[in-house]
Write a structure and sequence with these properties.
Layout: H1 3-39, H2 44-59, H3 62-77, H4 85-111, H5 115-123, H6 128-158, H7 170-181, H8 185-211
């Protein structure tokens, strides 16, 4: 196999990896905030439900969760599984998994805010929602960017777990090429891709953190 053909195939897998990464963040970041607020709710049932959810998501392997989300509809409800569901099963499993981690990061950031800020906002006539959206959340985001960055970088590498339900992303393609061609070149190329992807994301997140310095 020529280098150009190999890179073309790896490029197709790279697109899938980037899609998994992008869609997971798109769904898990807002979901994580919702879960964090539910976790901090005064409603005991809601609070305990989200606590159990977070515990399960953080306490079991992501690969196991992928398998449960993909095969669960068939084994539990007898629903036929189409090949097109594979990709969306990955997005669903990744999103609910990472939402649990993001929820705890959000919660830590929110609980670290001084109570005096809430009291000052109340004196100025802000409602609870206005206080949270305009005063608390911007500062929380600034505080949690480093922790979010760590999870985002982990997500880039975790996209390789999609191979467990036969979704053809970058690592799956590299492994197939290495097996058929008996060469390590595809692994090296995949490694470079993951490194560059991580580097770009780290630079972007650092740039965002610097732009939020005015909240300090």
């Amino acid at each position: 196999m020529s280098i150009s053909v190999m890179l073309s195939k790896l490029g197709e897998g790279m697109i899938t990896s980037v899609l998994i990464f992008t869609l997971t963040l798109l769904f898990s970041l807002p979901l994580g905030l919702i879960v964090a607020l539910a976790r901090m709710s005064k409603n005991i049932i809601l609070k305990n439900f989200t606590r159990i959810y977070i515990s399960i998501m953080r306490g079991t392997p992501l690969m196991l969760q992928l398998l449960v989300v993909y095969f669960g509809p068939y084994y539990l409800f007898g629903i036929s599984i189409s090949s097109g569901y594979r990709f969306w099963a990955v997005i669903l499993a990744f999103s609910i998994n990472y939402a649990a981690y993001f929820a705890e990061i959000y919660r830590g950031g929110i609980e670290s805010m001084p109570l005096g800020q809430y009291e000052a906002a109340r004196v100025l006539g802000y409602s609870e929602s206005q206080t949270f959206m305009k005063i608390i959340l911007p500062q929380v985001i600034k505080r949690i960017i480093p922790a979010i960055t760590n999870e985002v970088i982990t997500l880039i590498k975790d996209t390789s777990l999609a191979f467990s339900i036969a979704v053809t992303e970058m690592f799956t393609v590299a492994k197939a090429i290495a097996s058929s061609e008996k060469t390590m070149v595809s692994y090296v190329a995949a490694g470079i891709f993951y490194y560059v992807f991580n580097f770009v994301v780290a630079v972007v997140m650092e740039s965002i953190e610097k732009k939020l310095d005015y909240y300090r």
